[in-house]
Amino acid sequence: MGTGTDHESVPAARADEGVTDIGSMPAAGTAGGARWGGVGVGLVAGIAVLGLVLGALLGWIAFGGGSSPGDDSVEAGFARDMVEHHAQAVEMSLEVLQTTDDPGVRTLATDIASTQGNQLGQMEGWIRQWGLPMARPGDRMDWMGEVHSHHDMHMVEGAPMAGMANPEQMESLRNAEGEEADVLYLQLMTTHHIAGVDMAQAALDAGVDGEVRRLAAAMVNGQEAEIALMKDLLADVGAQTQEELGTTVGGADAGATGDEGGHEGHADDSAETDEHNH
Q1: CB contact at 8 A, 56 and 121
Q2: Domain-located, residue 58
Q3: pLDDT-based confidence at 33, cuts 50/70/90?
Q4: Global pTM?
């Protein structure tokens, strides 16, 4: 089942932010890396890394010679936080690709890994072109302000940011097999996307323009389409999202907070959002 939608980017991990670099993931055939030996997983990881490199180049070109946002700007905050957010989405996608036999899940995970890898590279390129450090001057999501308060988003104890999985949930995904892994991936990624949509919409509502606006609007439209697809894939096997269940999955003992419903049709920048690589 193809997605035909836009997604998020690859891990350019930073140890101080709890993000995993794709390049540091165990390779197939190495100690601790046997699980990465599934057909096509290495290729997808390679494509994701290539997308990261090309995206970084595009990000560098996009702002060459232009004015640069400040260190505490919405643009810088959005790019920094979304780099970390995208990185986990790619890691989760590469994990499920090791075990899934479902063609719909495989297509979705491949698309997320490659597209979000490219977008992550673009945003890292922006930050470097702006002459800004990757380190934040304040807390994650502070740039969203009061209108899109992250306190109203799904937050699990131990997760670095709203919508992201915590270490226990990530370990559950690594240990799951077959349909169990598919369902957990879809549940975690739906929550991940809902928060991603909120973050991108907050950037749009704050008035970002140019390339930042184009990419944020593409994220909203693409990820909302994927949320609908993931709900359908879950329904096909008699499962539901975390939001529909009203609970947190993956072995975490912390409850979910916030109301993630009603995220359809956020972006009204449809003319700017055609960043569909597939």
Answers
A1: yes
A2: yes
A3: very low
A4: 0.74
